[in-house]
Request: fold
Amino acid sequence: MEVSEEPAEDEMAQARNLRLSREAIFTYAAYPLLLLGALLVLPLPFSYLGIFHYSTVMPDVLVISGISVMFFGAFYDFGAKGYVMELIDNHFRITEIDMNHIYKQQVKLMGIYIGLGLLYVVCGVIIFAF
Amino acid sequence: MAAELIQKKSSAQKGTETILEVKDFSVKFKTFRGELNALDRINLELKNGEILGIIGESGSGKSTLALSLMGMIPENGKVEGRVRLFGKTVAATDISGEALLKMKRKKAKILSEKLRNIRWKDVSMVFQGSMNAFNPVYTIYKQIAEVYRIHTDYDEERIRKKVTETVKRAGLNPVILNSFPHELSGGMKQRAVIAMALALNPSLVIADEPTTGLDVVTQARIITELKNIVIKRVNSMMIISHDIGVVAQLATRVVVLYSGWIMESGSIEDIYLRPSNPYTKASLESYPSIASEKIFMKGIPGTPPDPINPPPGCRFAPRCFFAREICSREEPPFAQVEPGHFSKCHFAAEVISSGGRGKVEVKDEQFGSGVSADDKVLIVENLSKFYDLRTSLAGRLFSRASQRRIVRAVDHVSLDIRTSEILGIVGESGSGKTTFGRTAIALIPSSGGDVKLKVGTNELSKSVSESDGHAIGITVGNEEYMDVTALRRGQRNYKLLRKKTQIIFQDPYDSLDPKMTVFDVIREPIIAHRTTRDPEQVLMMVRDTLASVKLTPPENFLYRYPHELSGGERQRVAAARALVLRPEVLVADEPISMLDVSLRAGFMNLLLELRNRFGVTIIYITHDIASARYVSDRIVVLYLGIAVEMGSSEDIVRYPHHPYTRALIDAVPNPTPNWNPRELKIVGDIGNAVNVPKGCRFYERCVYAQDMCRVTPPPVQTDGAHWYLCHFTQEQLAGITPRSG
Amino acid sequence: MNIYLIIRKVVQSAILIVSMAAVLFVIFRLMPGNPAELFLHDARTHFATKQELQIIEARLGLTGGKWNFENFLIYMKDMFTFNFGYDYYSQESVATLIGNSMPYSLLLLGTALALSFVVGLPLGILATWYHGKKKEAVINTSNLILNSIPYFILAIVFYLYFVAFYPIFPVRGSFSTFDLYHMYDPSILVTVLWKMTLPLLSLVLVEEAAHVLTMRAAMVSVMGEDFITTARAKGVAERTIFFRHAARNAMIPVSTRMALEFAFLTSGAIFVEAIFSWPGIGTLIYQSALNEDYPVSEGALFTISLVVIIAYSIIDFVHAWLDPRISA
Ligand SMILES: Nc1ncnc2c1ncn2[C@@H]1O[C@H](COP(=O)(O)OP(=O)(O)OP(=O)(O)O)[C@@H](O)[C@H]1O
Ligand code: SF4
Ligand code: SF4
Ligand SMILES: [Mg+2]
Reply:
């Protein structure tokens, strides 16, 4: 028997799955955002104490972190390997379409991380211009 | 019918030419530890039209023999004697791996050329582990076409036509030709391998373990396929297997190998009905069969000999029930006992006339005894385990919205397990057996349902002291139970649960820490549960347990490391570790599947004995129905997470009711000569427990399926103790014309 | 190949390049001292005035301190427009310097890489082919020894022997950047090749040994696979088994190592070029490091890393082509 395409879930379930998938993307995007917040706020007290110069050092730090975020987004697989292993363990048939979807999601997240990295850089530039 | 045809065919051609002649043939491998005698003075003949079966356990030299026939002895192999195939010498002292290595360039080239011309055209091979028989970087087409490129001078177009024809004949869709090997399922790959073996219509096909590693259903299909090939397409075949049942279905003549020796050879009836060698006899009697009465299997004690230092005299002597003094002194002769029936034993004549090893009837002491239907140790209600792949972040991210990602590994299974019974759980791979075993004793958390484990009065620490306020203690009838599914790790009663339930894993090589001695391994649970601190008492407990799993004398084993033990001994150590705290329930997850065949019966007997002596309840998980029937009192059949049928093991095997169980039982090979497998009434392969049909879970593979089955879940059909899940009674099923598989 | 996968790989390389530029920025600024002072001091013009210092700082991109953010932005812009500033000494544009030496490096590296493959892979296969014979032992031991020698040691030995003691190969002089573009002239071609022999040998001998060893190990493991036994049983000639069935599979692990080997080779080339005064980027880096000539070092390192990363991505695609099973 040729294994047929798995039947589609009904519309409501699909909508839910789509929501879950979006939420997952937001969750992944939240980490670098939180980190950015922390990076911006945490050194404030120290700079207040005069230990270092916020507006000169922070741009560098932010840009370097921004590039790191981009780097991470480009090279981390976002758990794809583990997910594929899970599929195999559970006797799923992995098709081209599945792989394509996985790559697509990765590219999406990579784009988001690059965008967030740029946000770091922009923050750096703004602080510098201040 | 198939067997008759084979018979007819072979008798028609019998006695014609000898196509294979093996004379005083020995193969010795050079290894680091010394010279390993893989085959020792083998004599063998194969006449045109015969189907020769070769039986032997792992390491007996089966594959070495097969390779020799193709002139492919490895480079560290030294040869004495010779093998002649179609009148051409393919292996001899000067035609071996080692000889080729030492030979002059030119001469070696001429010789290899000669050997290569014989290969595949005259004799082709289906290899052990066909999963890897294809080169992963080339398409299937390229690899089958290669055969034609080498041995014919067809042009490209003709080759393409031939290849397509070949795979079509093997029942495969030609589209697979453009696939890479990793894109095919196990069964498809095996078919493609067979197709390739038949591409040039060879006169002899050698099949080395052609079904090992496949599910029973696929195995039965491949056997049928091979059978058809013998009838329609090739003259002779050699079928090599450790599985007596597989060989019985195909062979007309059988050779039994043990540690490089031919112990016995003769017609299939000679071997299976009138064995004249103690090894053959013991092997036959250690093979669980579902066709015959359930009889006690004695098993074969000990382990196969070290191939580098075989024992003096008869190599089987240390394990032989017939052995006398002379056996460990003198090598037995390979002598004829009846016309065409040879045996390597000092007492062949006596063995053949002695009949069975004294058949032992089913006795209550050995099998199920005094199990009361009312005394339940474990009550499982609607137990479910769903894996939602969307629970993990990556799962949500990478699953396509249109696809289900909930695996119903175990789906609302309800059953009672009686005190001191052995309950067999059978099913194909992917049916949820392991998950059921583990959720039932809360080794992994369940997703729903209840499991209650019987406890003694006052054994539970009272529920009020439990932090989360769950009532753990429940009274059913007059008995106290604990609610296993409500237990949480860290609670006091959780420890009690762990102590009362234990598990033995499939792989004895993985489940023991290589850095711990046997003593440490078995002591571990005693320490963890703080049963006793007294070192004297610990030692005593460990020794007693070792003795109870038949590792005697215990002193010999206490301070050994796992790598110093054989597979069977390791599995016994694993059993000892599970048993040292005297659990009530023991889950044995495929405990024999990794063991050598000659050791399996011994381990099954051990399980029976442990139950009888200690009253431990055993959940025996297996894909091998015959072994489940041997050890268990009742059997439950799982299919994609659902229990589809349950009954006493005799009922399940003799009167299977559910269409799935019927197919499974029909697929089990049988160790009787010329046994005719019934036509398999099942469609396709087991899928995954994801997109389960709304109605009957078996709908897509059922040959009796009707429209209502698709949408309505079937009810339970029952006649008391034996029940199954189907819309139809047995009489109704008999009235439905099955669609073809 | 999947379009998304290609996008990802390309973007990965791009980000790698950006990150690398940033890393270089940090590394060079973590070095002690003020390059501007150093410059003035080393250039031995005269004692620097404050104004002069500022002018120089501006030119070196150091206005307002090393870590000044504006400098970083300028730096990044400069890097990606190949505007690496000027040599402290000759005042030549670094881009020109690199442009002049790059072809030499590419010539040396490319030839070394190609030769080491052309020699190493077949030798690795041959070592397996002659399994159990004397030839195998010879191939194995010689390559084991070669592989354990660092490039520069071999280069120094060659230098001592063939340049210092027995001056067979010319090293210095009579060689201009111009020559490379006139290689169609046979006499110049011979000069270039003659001069290249020693650095090339130092690189190839060591690099080829690495390929022999990996290839042999991969071949041995592939030859034990079931599909090889099957091919043999099919009557496939031993030669075809080796070169078609086994070698192709053995190339997969080798190609994963290729990227790494290329990086090794590049780093080795820096020393080897310097030792033999081969007018490539390696010599440039070596000289600039000795002179603490930051702009040149920065520019040259950036360029060389760029080359390595591009090579990496190409290798990645080759790998995917070799192994149909490749996935996430
Ligand atoms: N090339 C080799 N070098 C050294 N020993 C070998 C070699 N090939 C096989 N042997 C040894 O020879 C003996 C017989 O091996 P063989 O593979 O023929 O057994 P088998 O009956 O096919 O077993 P299995 O059921 O595990 O396939 C074993 O002890 C094995 O370890
Ligand atoms: S010769 Fe002796 S030990 Fe060997 S099989 Fe016969 S009886 Fe057993
Ligand atoms: S309910 Fe229908 S599909 Fe299911 S087993 Fe019975 S006949 Fe087959
Ligand atoms: Mg074998």
User: Anything to note?
Assistant: Chain B touches chain C at residues 67, 70, 72, 75, 101, 112, 116-121, 124-125, 127-138, 146-147, 150-151, 180, 182, 193, 196 (CB under 8 Å). The two ends of chain B are 19 Å apart (CA to CA).
